[in-house]
Amino acid sequence: MNEAPVSADGSADSGTGIARAAPAKINLYLHVTGRRADGYHLLDSLAVFAGIHDTIVARENDSLALSLSGPFGSALSASAGGESDNLVLRAAKLLRERAGAKAGAAITLVKRLPVASGIGGGSADAAATLLACDALWKTRVAKPDLAAMALQLGADVPICLHGRAAFFGGIGEEIADAPKLPQAFLILVNPGIPLSTAEVFRARKGSFGNAGRFNNAPKGAAELAQILGTRRNDLSEAAIGLCPVLSQVLEALAGAKGCLLSRMSGSGATCFGLFATEAGAKDAAREIGAQQPRWWVTASALITDTRTLDPVLP
Question: Which one from 125, 134, 156, 234 is the annotated catalytic residue?
Answer without folding.
Answer: 156
